[in-house]
Amino acid sequence: MQTQDFEKQLNRREQYKARLKPYDYFIKEFDTIDFESLGEGDRYYLQDFGIFNTDFLEDEFTIRIRVAGGRISTKQFSFLADIVNKYDLTLVITARAGFQLHDVEADDVHELFRLLNENNLITWQSFGDNIRNIVTDVYDGANKHAKIEVYPLIKQMQDYIIQNPKYVGMLPRRVSIGISGNEANVNSFFANDLYFALAKKDDIYGFNVYMGGKNTEIAQDADIFLLYEEVFDFFKAFVATFYTHGSRFSRSKTRLFYMIEEMGLAKLKELIENIYGKEFKTAGEIQLLHKEFEEFELLKDSTYAFCYQTDFARLTPQEMRQISDYTNKHNAQIRLGIDQNIYILGISEKKAPFASPALSSTIVACAGNLCPYAVWSIKDESAKYLPLEKIYKHKIKIGFSGCAKGCGRHRHTDIGLIGLKTNNFGDTDGGARVFIGAEHDTGQSVARQLFSMVPFVHLKETLTLIVTLFEKSNCKNFQLYAHHILNKYSEDFLSLWHLYNLKNKTALALPKQENILTCKEEEQLLYESFANLVLIEDNFKKTVSALAKELWTVAGKDPHYKPPMKRINVR
Q1: How many Å apart are CA 349 and CA 468, to the nearest integer?
Q2: Cβ burial, residue 43 (10 Å; 0-12/13-18/19+)
Q3: For 372-427, what is each residue's pLDDT tens digit?
Q4: CA distance 383 to 398
Q5: Residue 32: is it exposed, middle or buried by C-beta count within 10 angstroms (0-12/13-18/19+)?
Q6: Is the distance from CB of 134 to CB of 67 less than 8 angstroms?
Q7: Quick one: which of 16, 40, 49, 405 is 20 to 30 A from 293 by CA?
Q8: d(CA 470, CA 467)
Q9: From edge to edge, which strands make up the β-sheet containing 296-298?
Q10: In percent, how much of the chain has pLDDT > 90?
Q11: Sign of CA dihedral 36, 39, 41, 43
Q12: Domains of the chain
């Protein structure tokens, strides 16, 4: 009776696990599954083997492939191109440096699953409550910033959890892991649940441990330093601890972040240390530099790497064959970046072997309308909404998420966007929530909200203004702009500053401040800067709402639309 009462308290997914473990489900059920007639439990279990489907799109499937450390052989890459072509699939690179195959038909799922895994294109545990694809910097072990090559560690960690019956689908929630032995990275790793960051202690390179990151949060410094040979043992202790002590009740509170929030980081460390078997060393000095990476990167062996900028993460079979033929002929390597681009390492001269289809090197985008949860076609419409040339010129990091799940890491970038539906502005197709100003390289802060919603028709103008104001700051990069200027002001002040520039069709730069301004100081600065300023009841937030409606509402089509409010407070 007590067991039944406890099971009722578990979240829905955990109730299925309690009745039948995902590994046992695979052994007993997988070969005989009718993919045209799935139940709720089937959909939960199948995610643990890389197969995704929803009850409202019953005939469409997605298969995800994990690519450890983003490294894939030319043979595998060429084979995957043949698969995409033969089954008429859409392939995208994920934000964890793996692949997703979209438009998979129900009749083909069994065969594709078998073909992929038999060719070491592993789908196991790429979705669901598992250790997801473990990521690193794309230049791991290769360029001048690489101090420790971590790919062997990634393989060791992946081999430990793949097809391990105890852990297949049996964690309380997914765990994302990043590890880098490079002092300058193409992308930040602080959005991971667990991040091993390059550090130095007593003049020896190793790793500082950070825990509890997610798409909306920065991983916290755990004050732990590990040598290379200690990382794997720590990883095993960490997984065992999360498996045993992580919450399995409310699904919205099962990530590691909430475990830390509930018990505290000190208690979590104590639990891990008990399994790890020896006392942790305190953290060393983190080794992180900011670097603007170019199309070509000089490598340690005096060859070059070429960044092939994908069509916002999409690849055609023709592109894949072109890349695989070239790398095979020139004995080069193919690596996937968590920026969703292809890197070709080992080129003898600083010359592009072929042209990239888009300016996407600093843009991370979720699957967009390929995913049933997204509300906009990010990959088709990026050029419509983004000032791409300016973004590419200044190496501004952009994160696109098609919904609030945040797969585009929108709060870990310079400018972040979430696509949302809205009727707040009349007859619009939808809009985007806008975030700016993360100090993401060093994990200082996530981006803050600038606008809760900008209708799509006004988005490019708004983003262009954001970039223009950055240009006027004369800061060397957008993170310095965030540190020295944006993050000295409140969110509502920044919203008003951008809105009044849009209203007046100006581009008045934000003044640089030594200290964070008070509300009164911000108010005074606004009145000094904009002659037509109107504050509604001396309230920034109400004024932002009213001015956004004034600028962006489609008049006559919004039943809640009212004419612009008259000036109430004049200074």
Answers
A1: 35
A2: middle
A3: 778 777 777 777 889 999 999 999 999 989 888 889 999 999 999 998 887 778 87
A4: 13
A5: exposed
A6: no
A7: 405
A8: 5
A9: 71-72, 333-336, 342-347, 304-308, 296-298
A10: 86
A11: positive
A12: 2-65+99-118 (no CATH), 68-88+292-360 (3.90.480.10), 151-286 (3.30.413.10), 363-552 (3.30.413.10)
Token match 């019956």: residue?
A: 165
Q: How far is CA 2 from CA 7, 15, 288, in A?
A: 9, 15, 51
Residue 339: both structure tokens together: 């920026």
User: What's the average model confidence in pLDDT over 94-118?
Assistant: 97
* Tens-digit pLDDT profile for residues 418-458: 988 877 788 777 889 999 999 999 999 999 999 999 998 89
CB atoms closer than 10 angstroms to residue 10: 17
Quick one: tokens of 265?
């980081």
User: H/E element holding 102?
Assistant: strand 99-105
Phi, psi of 193 (to 5 degrees): -60, -40
pLDDT at 559: 40
In DSSP notation, 21-89 reads: -HHHHHHHHGGG--TTS--HHHHHHHHTTTEEEETTEEEEEEEEE--GGGEE-HHHHHHHHHHHHHTT-
Q: For residues 19 and 15, give the distance between their C-alpha atoms in angstroms, rounded to a whole number.
A: 7
Largest CA distance in the chain: 75
Question: At 305, is the secondary structure helix, strand, or coil?
Answer: strand
Structure tokens at 98: 């793996």
Q: In the predicted model, is pLDDT for residue 305 greater than 60?
A: yes
The reported pLDDT for the residue numbered 404 is 84
Q: Please enumerate in sequence order all residues whose Cβ is within 8 A of that of 539, keeping only pairs 6 or more positions apart, or say none.
A: none
406 to 94, 400, 402: CA distances (angstroms): 13, 8, 7
Could you tell me which residues come within 8 angstroms of residue 224 by beta carbon, excluding any fewer than 6 positions away? Answer: 208, 209, 234, 269, 280, 281, 282, 283
- 204: phi then psi, degrees, rounded to nearest 5: -120, 135
